[in-house]
Amino acid sequence: MTEDKTNEAETETAETATETAAETAAETARADTPPDRLSVNPQSEYFEPEVLQRGIGIRLNGQEKTTIEEYCVSEGWAKVTAGRSRDRHGNPMTLTLKGTVEPYFKDTEQG
């Protein structure tokens, strides 16, 4: 009877280890994938300082853009600043450009 308990405990331990490894792999995959939508404006609901500190690069229609204020991959748009113009609240004026948005982390740059 003690052997059965030992075998059950070993089986449970192996299953737990497998689940933990799968969860870790999923977290790593998520950690290497930038969010679908992100904003650099702290007042936005899509502002994520941890992700921004890591460094995000954006390609819009194959061209590297450095003036992106906000982007959405699934909807295919990015808001870029329009020079030094400001709105009446002091926020940068933005233009919405549509196309293929490709975000990537600069610390794991892919090209």
UniProtKB/TrEMBL annotation:
It holds the Pfam family DUF3297. It comes from the Bacteria. Residues 1-45 are annotated as: Disordered. Residues 14-28 have a biased composition (Low complexity). This is Glutathione peroxidase.
